[in-house]
Structure formats: structure tokens, C-alpha cells
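re: ur question from the group chat, yeah i did fold both. here u go
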Amino acid sequence: MDTCQRLITIRFSELKDAARLMELDHLVWDRNTAPEPLNWESREHYLLHCPPGSQLVAVTDSEEIAGYLGFRPPTGLDSSAHVYELWIAVDPAFQRQGIGSRLMHAFQKAARQEGKSKLRLRVLSSNPRAIAFYRSCGFKEEGRLVREYCVQGRYLDDILMSCFLSD
């Protein structure tokens, strides 16, 4: 079956997903998409920072995790309980097939049902495809930390984007 027509199931992450999610982090988060590559010291270290249920995963009909959307409260303060911070990663072999959009749509619906009213994220200025994707999902630039990172001798802005959820 063509990957564009595969059945994709969206569900919360489970303990059994940890190895594949760590692999996705290694595939996706590099010097073009993050200030530094993301490498986990161990499975335990990963699970400490990304416990089961803290991501939505996109699973193909052949049981392969094609991507995920991670989320967490931005602070421990009650005054920001209406907000989720998020990040999204799709395996390069599955990109541009609508999986990111499916994850984002499912997460926006779930966050709205939970009573959240704002989603926020950060993206590097060197990642125009991600910026365009987030804009297509309703995110707008809310701020910019100019020359926040120096990656391989090049200064990059850290763009802060948000999406307000409406009923």
C-alpha cells in the first residue's frame, strides 16, 4: 500500500514506544532543526523527560510510529495551566504526507477538550519548512529572540509561536 494512503492511528504514547521515539529524536533533531542534536543518555533518561502519555504518536497500519507530538505545561504555575508547550517530529521517510497535520489537528482537539486555550512552541529561524507548517496550523509569531543561538558559526533567531484555541 502506498504510504500516502496508509491508515494512520493517533494515540497517546506507551512505554513500549520509547525506543522508537528515541530513534525519531535522533533522526529529526539535528543542527538544522534544533540548537544542538538531541541524544538521550539512556532509555531511563528518556522516560524521565518523556513519560508515557506525554506524546501523541502517529502509528501506521504496519504498527510503525511515523511521528509524534510532545507536549507539557510550560511551567508549574496555576496561572499558566491554560497553556501547553509542544514540539513535533515526523520521520523523514514519512514527511510531507499529512502526518504532522493529523497529529496537530488531533492535539488541538484534545487540548481544547482539556480546557486549554493556548498552544505555544519554539522554532529556529533556519527552519522555514517548519515555520510554514506551523503557520498552516494556525500558529502566529509571538516573539523572537534575535541571534539566540550560534550554530556552526551562524547566528539563528529563536522564534516563539502560538495558537489560540477557540471553541
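okk and heres the other one u asked abt
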Amino acid sequence: MDFKTYVRDIQDFPEKGIVFKDISPLLKDERAFQAATKAMIAMVGNNAVDKVIGIESRGFFFAPLLAFELSAGFVPVRKVGKLPADKISRTYALEYGSDTLEIHSDSITKGDRVLIHDDVLATGGTARAACELVESLGGEVVLCHFLLELDFLNGRRRLENYPAKSLMAF
């Protein structure tokens, strides 16, 4: 299946000059959604995974499905102020600003093998911050996992110490 046909470009969102890759058409088509989920599970290969991190907010679409299929726990990594219990945070640069991610301090146990999932790999700042959060809690990042990758932003450079896979590249 050509998953790229289910991704549309939205000009000037969220800011002027940005071309947003909208995955809504993929999500609403049951065949494409199921096929993409199966393909992303296959991308994990033989990696043993204890926890799957989903990065707010669009990482929440697939990460719980991946966790379920991999018999792993699901851990949300959220923007500031969204998690109620004790947490740690990392601030990172975006292609159009900066942001901060938080994770509950008890969500990763020392030695946990963690898959980090997000919908898009752009500059790599978000995924790198998630990797640092996992490692600061004693976890091991086994894979950075994406629905799509924007090659022209060179996000893999920030993930050079981590294995990374994307279902689609633009």
C-alpha cells in the first residue's frame, strides 16, 4: 500500500512557511490505518520491548496500538502541566520554536527496553528529548519509531546514537 497517498500537505500550519503533513486521511481510512499499524509493528523486528512511549499528541494515535501488539506497557510523554504525578522534563528546539516534554518519574524502570514512537521525525529535537528522558530514568532506547520522516530537516543527525526507523519519508 502506498501510504504517502494518505498524507496531505497543509500550507502555513501551524505557522506561515511551514508545510504540515496531515495524517488524518490515513487515520480515517480503516484499510490504510490497519495496514500502517501492521507495517509499523513489523518495523520493530525482533527487538524486545518493555514500554512504548507515545509523544504528545499525535504519537498517541499509534503508540498504544503498538504497545498492545508488542505486549508492552504504554507511557505517555506530555507537554508541560499535563501529568499529575512526580515528573521530570526536558526542553528542546523545534523547527519553529522550542517546547518542553515531561514524563512521570516512575514510568520507566531501570533496564526497561523502550520503543519511542512519534508520528513525524522532523528536526529530531522531540525524539531526542524523549530519549534523554528515558535514559535519565535508567531505560534503554531500543528504537526511535516514526510514521513519517521529513528527510530535508535531517532529524536523524540528532538521533545518531539511536536506531531509528520510519514507515514513510518525504
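fwiw on the second one: The mean pLDDT is 96. The CA atoms of residues 117 and 145 lie 5 Å apart. idk if thats what u expected
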